[in-house]
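Person: At home tonight, work slowly through the protein below, taking as long as you need, and write a paragraph about the fold.
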Amino acid sequence: MRMAEVRVPLAAVDLDGSLRIPAGARAIVVFAHGSGSGRHSPRNRQVAEFLTTAGLATFLVDLLTREEEVIDLETAELRFDIGLLAERLGGVTDWLASDPATAALSIGYFGASTGAAAALIAAADRLPTVRAIVSRGGRPDLAMSVLPNIRQPTLLIVGGADEVVIDLNRRALAALGGIKRLVIVPGATHLFEEPGALEQVGVEASEWFRQYLAEPS
């Protein structure tokens, strides 16, 4: 296992990320956080553990700088700036595709909350670089205009007790192009804090990425 804290240089900012590459990995999953969350999110780190156990590399990256996170904690505005998040996620993707340590790996996205919308927008512009997408408790409805253009296999995972988000995801599912699936985790709320809920997310995401990302096209 190769583990490293890295800094991704983009045009306007540098972004911090945590990179993990298991031996023999053929694919990497980039985590797009949302709603005030970052690379230290215990929920996303738990899902990342499932993915690395399944042989997938992971990259948890902060799409906001430390200074922007301080501002966002007060205003909650930047976490809903989907265009900004998508632009930076795209820059991170381009960096991974060109860096010698990761250039040979297929790329997928795991998006949570508003990060799911950013992932879908970035993916729409990066066929075939981005090959699969998973959303956990996501807001794909915030990317509704690009959903018909999505051709990557897309898995939407929602908690069974998160009724409003279930409805939003069902609308997004109908608009999505390509292979798509909606999984509802019984009894789970928006943050999947119930016993076993995140474990089911990890299993579903691992299977999806292994099927559509780690296997040859």
Notes: The radius of gyration is 16 Å.
